[in-house]
Amino acid sequence: MPELKNFIDRASKFIEQQRQMFGDFSTATTSSEAPSQAKEIEEEITSNSASIATEKENSPQIERMSDPAELIANCKTCDELKALCEKSEVLRTDLENTNLVFGVGNPNADLMIVGEAPGANEDKQGEPFVGRAGQLLDKIMEAVNFKRNEIYIANILKHRPPDNRNPTAEERAKSLPYLLKQIELIDPKLILCVGKVSGTTLLGKDEALKNMRQKFHAFHGRELMVTYHPAALLRNPNWKRPTWEDVQLLRKRYDELAGK
Q1: Which residues contact 173 (CB under 8 A, 6 or more apart)?
Q2: pLDDT digits (tens, 9 = 90+) for 210-228
Q3: Which of 104, 259, 172 is nearest to 180 (CA)?
Q4: Element (H, E) at 45
Q5: How far apart are the C-alpha atoms of 36 and 79, rounded to whole Å?
Q6: How many CB atoms within 10 Å of residue 51?
Q7: Could you give the CA distance from residue 131 to residue 144 in angstroms, rounded to a whole number?
């Protein structure tokens, strides 16, 4: 370690100076202080070596405690996880000065909706689904008797990507552990993924959205359903009917599971 090397170098120079002035320490010398000083240095080297060795031995534990996976695992509440997300640089996209969009709703909800990434309005307000797509999502949920404050809403990404583009594979991989912990803490019975990116990310497979619809997928002891993103419905009204079919099926299953 640098500290130990520097200390040894300084000690060696001092010992050499003493040797030149008073002779070799292993033979008799005219100065009684030189061997004593040398002995003190040797003892200090030994002491510092032991101290540094102890620090080195303990340092892997410190590094492990700083490991993101362990920090995530140690979060016991959504507030703790949110505080961790606020400090996490890996969650940021290449768009500068964005706000964290953690999630909103009932922290004990039995239904959790997962979108793809925050947009401009979401970034500004720090809340998911507050723009036109969010307003449409609220109407869809209300049509099957879900109020916004009864469910929990989050996204795969916690920060807005540039130009509202789809999250990259790297961004999704970095964000997923935080979202999985969020799901664990909310502990919903049902998860509704809106959009292909959300569905394929959580299910871990690249499949067409139409093939993921109208069925419940097993997901970490829960059930997961996939439907169209509200923003897609704004662009293509023809997808409103299949989305309506999906959420009706969702409501039916929710009632069967005795959701709150």
Answers
A1: none
A2: 999 999 999 999 999 999 9
A3: 172
A4: helix 33-65
A5: 59
A6: 12
A7: 21
Burial class (CB in 10 A: 0-12, 13-18, 19+), 206: exposed
- Where does residue 31 fall: left (phi above 0), alpha (psi -120 to 50 degrees), or beta otherwise? beta
Q: Concatenate the DSSP letters of all residues of 166-232 into one string.
A: PPPHHHHHHHHHHHHHHHHHH--SEEEEESHHHHHHHHTS---HHHHSSS-EEETTEEEEEE--HHH
Q: How far is the C-alpha of 160 from the C-alpha of 206, rounded, in Å?
A: 23
The pLDDT value recorded for residue 68 is 87
Residue pair 248/144 in contact by the 8 Å Cβ criterion:
yes
Which of the 8 DSSP states describes residue 73?
Answer: H
Mean pLDDT over the full length of the chain? 83
What confidence score (pLDDT) does residue 258 get? 78
- What whole-number distance in Å separates Cα of residue 250 and Cα of residue 256? 10
pTM of the model: 0.74
Could you tell me the pLDDT band of residue 61, with boundaries at 50, 70 and 90?
A: very low
- Bridge partners of 154, per DSSP, are 114
177 pLDDT exceeds 70?
A: yes
Q: For residues 70-85, give the mean pLDDT.
A: 96
Residue 209: other Cβ atoms inside 10 A: 20
What region does 123 belong to: left with phi over 0, alpha with psi -120 to 50, or beta? alpha
Strand (E) or helix (H) holding 238: none
Spatial CA neighbour of 117 closest among 181, 86, 162: 162
How long is the chain? 260
Q: What is the pLDDT of residue 43?
A: 55
Q: What's residue 91's pLDDT?
A: 96
Helix (H, G, I), strand (E, B) or coil at 114: strand
